Amino acid sequence: MIEALGFLTISWFDPWLLMLTAAGTLAGIYVGAIPGLSVTMAASILISFTFKWNVNDALALIAGVYIGGVYGGSRTAILLNIPGAPSAIATALDGYPMAQRGEAGEAIGLTTIMSVFGGFVGILALALFAPLLSDFALKFTSRDYLLLAMIGILLVGTLSGESFAKGVFAGALGVLIGMVGLDPMTAEGRFTFDTITLMGGIPYVVAMIGFFGVAEAFVQLHNLDLPAVKQKIDRVIPRISDIRRYFKLALRASGIGTVIGALPGTGGDIAALLAYDDAKRVTKDPDVPFGEGAKEGLIAPEAANNAAVGGAFVPMLTLGIPGDAVTAVIIGALFIHGLKPGPLLLVETPHLFWFTVGNLALANIFLLIFGLTGIRIFTKIVECPKAVLIPLIVILSAVGSYAIQNNPVDIYWMLLFGVFGYFLKIYGFQVGPVILGVILGPMMDANYRRAMIGARNDLGTFAWDFVSHPISLVLLIAFLALLLSQTPVGGWIRTLLQRRQATGGEAG
User: Which residue has the higher pLDDT, 152 or 66?
Assistant: First the structure.
């Protein structure tokens, strides 16, 4: 152990490794900010360039891109209402309204500080509780992931303001889009209409760019005559009072992100969604309503999705199971370098575990430095005349959609989803639940099929499994409670509790 720590002290502060980590973090911020360029894509490309490198050099660069990329998606989410990554969808709900009020600089500064805070919480959990979290994550079965996805579908309904029905409809629409393609179990086409182009499914990034970027551009055509909103850049670093005020919320969201990130196959997008919904529930009197520029709506998802990075490394390093798509790519990198992720990795090469922990911490420090610089340049985007900005948004959206698979058909899908998203916005539907439905739908479908296979296609056994296992039972109760809370009965219970609290307060 002492030898490993001595090796790490030299490695962490090696100038070459520091430069690689810094370069990866800076590149990740800008890759994450460009819709269509995902962190997973960047990590995959890097492997092809680094497979002959020293393993420490390769991991330093990839870890930097990972940390920077998860954060980078918030930049365009705040400035243009176009999330650069799925984990920034919840950020756009309150970040973009802040930019519309001229507070883009404050919003970006706040997300930077809270992203770094959440990242350090996830890294600390990785260092201290990796075996414990990995054992807990290993207990999750297919039915538990099915319930988690179903809870996610219900949660997206709460993102649609006062109309839960509209939110669930939008989420179900996203699930329908996510079902397009070959069946994962039988390889038969679903909603493909016997066309080859639909057999591979519809990339969720294309749908995200269309529903957010192009649809927003079409909506802004109604406001071409309005002057651009001047952004206040006099304060970028958040006030100490704000940090103290929102510390508990950031810590709570970071805990959610760490646990969700440690569940194999989930990731920052689900963590951000759950943290955002939790923030709405625990914040009683926000200064600004959620969805209209509440700071709590920025803090919770950004702290959670960055904390999920540390959580995602837990099952990868301890069990050899990827926590998300990026850690799946990193597992491939480790295999290329002759390492075998899993329990023996910590026994045979303990220094690699601690090197990863230290390297993620250094990347987080660089994120703080780079995240608080260049904000003035970024915010100039919002101040561009709409007659210039809207065509640029459409062009960048087309380039981003094409870059995913080098397929021109994806551009047509982007435009179709843009038109569809425009009408959804006009009639009061939120497009965020649609994208989250596209992401959660395949997860729900695949785990339902696995759970049924595990129950030998017997509905009685399938139903009994949900109440006979502790984790499944807790998740089932949470699902039913969430469903009940959105019915008239739930409203009646909330009113009764509020009256009792008010009566108790008056009596006191």
Answer: 66
